[in-house]
Specification:
With 73 residues, the protein is mostly helical. The protein contains 3 helices and no strands. The termini are close together.
């Protein structure tokens, strides 16, 4: 079973650099459930045609890395 960071710390990492998080309460519930069960959340990356800027793509990939590492710490 993985050692997860506390939910508040995970949320802080995810909020850092994010322009907007829709339904933070749902994300908090999912993080809490994930921490209790020991099963990491699945992360899916969706990109649109408007995300053609390499710096934006790089930032979104970095954010996914933060999310992934916070789940395994």
């Amino acid at each position: 079973m993985a050692n997860f960071l506390p939910v508040d710390e995970q949320l802080d990492l995810l909020k850092k650099g994010a322009a907007e998080i829709i339904r933070v309460s749902d994300l908090r519930e999912r993080l809490e459930k994930s921490r209790q069960t020991g099963v990491p959340l699945r992360v899916k990356r969706a990109s649109t045609q408007t995300l053609r800027s390499p710096p934006r793509a790089h930032r979104s990939i970095r954010k996914l890395k933060h999310f992934k590492t916070s789940a395994t710490m």
